Amino acid sequence: MAMAVANCCFSVVTSTVKFRCCLSSQRYLATSQHSIASVTCKAVVNRRGSPGEHKEGVSHKKSPGKPKDRRSSLHDEDEDGISGKRNAQKSQPMAFKSSGAQRKDKKEFKFDMKEQQFEQQNLKDAAFLDAVVKVYCTHTEPDYSLPWQKQRQYTSTGSAFMIGNGKLLTNAHCVEYYTQVKVKKRGDDTKYIAKVLARGVDCDIALLSVESEEFWEGAEPLEFGHLPRLQDSVTVVGYPLGGDTISVTKGVVSRIEVTSYAHGSSDLLGIQIDAAINPGNSGGPAFNDQGECIGVAFQVYRSEEVENIGYVIPTTVVSHFLNDYERNEKYTGFPSLGVMLQKLENPALRACLKVQSNEGVLVRRVEPTSDANRVLKEGDVIVSFDDVHVGCEGTVPFRSNERIAFRYLISQKFAGDVAELGIIRAGSFMKVQAVLNPRVHLVPYHVDGEPLIEEECEGSIGLKLLAKSRYSLARFKGEQIVILSQVLANEVNFGYEDMSNQQVLKLNGTQIKNIHHLAHLVDSCKNRYLVFEFEDNYLVVLEREAASACSSHILKRLWNSI
């Protein structure tokens, strides 16, 4: 990057909001952090509830240092959902069942529904238990305050299981910031190197592969089953804390609804069970009485007021993830309609909007970068989605005699799919079509990336970014927030060395679009001065030629100090 920035470090924030995930071992709390784009001197981009209640995934075994207690309340406005507060009893918004639309021109992942009957008393001898493996992951997180270096590595353990074709499934948070992943089969003393093929942060699923033929000798992949019913028996298998051998816990299905996925801050279909899920269970399978896998264990709900609340990612969400990967040769994510909605339960509100029937949800806000921005306006009322009627409380029919959140229908789609919306605008009914794509937040709040909010949570920048993550929307594609994390002291930037964690808005009067745009503006500048404008009208002026001359010296001193 050009001269002036050689004396500073700019970071592009691409994620925010902390949640608690747990990876197995001595450390029970581990917050996943999503990648940010950072630049130092030469525009090199390094990609990298309330108190007492929270959701957890796998546990981390991190060394050295004490783990931070990282927590954050859940967002009070659901993505593509209905605004409303979440209390202790309803901390998870209703959840999606993501089966996705079928496409004939591409290979689809299908479930083999062949039953495998077995006696409950012989569970310990069931062959399908051998398909469950232990995951050993070495992680190296980036240092967001010093983006040219990384933090010390640490290790964790979790669970995974075989699904055939040389592949395994586990949780995305089990392999976040991975530098090496190994797996070990039940009853084996050999660890095998695994490759991470795809990570779905929003659905907390990761796809692994193992090339060793020895690993797959005698292996029988698991078969997937249907979405269970309430009170169906469920068995969770994995490698949690408390021992080195496989662990089996039993319970029943307590609830099936759209659930908050703590790792990705998304809302998808989830299965609530009362079987124990402990640190290290994450990524392990849950079985029904026929020995079929009905989902992936991934998080628990911790509170002083409740106990034995665990969550399983259903096979419908797993199917969506795998189909997405097969279609695109990569994971693209669950799509979004790109709107914020409000319930229409109040009769006066419906009458004011000229909605005659007891149905529909109000469009409060449309994201400028979404395709829906072409066809929807604030004040429209969505009454149907692909000819499925939407109730005034924001729900749609589900199975035989249930209702589920409207977001469930959106989650069945794939990125690039078209949805037909029935809307009422100023009393007139019409139908419009919109292309669905994954939502892009101005400050994404995937747990897999909580740069400055986490590290600077007590400072003003953390609070500002938290506010932007909740309420700000990108005005155009590619928009990023660029943060000056610190100034690398030198004579050329005398008087600015105490600056840190400030958002840069303009360079020489030009609005900054993203980190690449800033680098281009600096490199192409021919003016005598580089004039940086920050929030609150704070001004920084550097002499361009002087900054250029000292750039290499600052870089050399920086790398020598690492």
Compute the number of helices: 7
Overall helicity: 10-25%
Secondary structure tally: strands: 30
Report the average pLDDT across residues: 78
Radius of gyration: 25 Å
Approximately how much beta-strand content do the residues carry?
Answer: 25-35%
Q: Distance N terminus to C terminus?
A: 20 Å
Broad shape = flat
Report the major sheet. Answer: 8 strands, antiparallel
Global structural class: mainly beta
Contiguous uncertain segments of 5+ residues: 1-7, 9-53, 58-79, 84-121
What is this structure's SSE topology?
Blueprint: E1 8-13, E2 37-39, E3 46-47, E4 53-56, E5 60-61, E6 132-139, E7 154-164, E8 167-170, E9 178-184, E10 191-200, E11 205-209, E12 233-238, E13 247-261, E14 266-273, E15 285-287, E16 293-303, E17 310-314, H1 315-328, E18 339-343, H2 347-352, E19 361-366, E20 381-385, E21 388-389, E22 395-398, E23 402-405, H3 407-411, E24 418-425, E25 428-435, H4 451-455, H5 460-471, E26 481-487, E27 502-507, E28 510-511, H6 515-524, E29 529-534, E30 539-543, H7 544-561
Antiparallel strand pairs: 1-2, 1-26, 2-3, 4-16, 5-7, 6-7, 6-9, 7-8, 8-11, 9-10, 10-11, 12-13, 12-15, 13-14, 14-17, 15-16, 16-17, 18-19, 19-20, 20-21, 20-24, 22-23, 24-25, 26-27, 27-28, 27-29, 29-30
Key structural traits:
disordered N terminus; 6-stranded antiparallel beta barrel; 8-stranded antiparallel beta sheet; DEGP_PDZ_sf; mainly beta; 12% helix; Peptidase_S1C; hydrolase; 562 residues; flat; serine protease; single chain; 32% strand; 7 helices
Structure description:
With 562 residues, the protein is mainly β. The protein contains 7 helices and 30 strands. The strands form 5 sheets. Strands 1, 2, 3, 26, 27, 28, 29 and 30 form an 8-stranded antiparallel β-sheet that branches. The chain has a 6-stranded antiparallel β-barrel with strand order 12-13-14-17-16-15. The longest helix has 18 residues, at 544-561. The two termini are 20 Å apart. Mean pLDDT is 78; it is low at 1-7, 9-53, 58-79 and 84-121. Residues 48-104 are annotated as: Disordered. Keywords: Hydrolase, Protease, Serine protease. It comes from Salix koriyanagi.
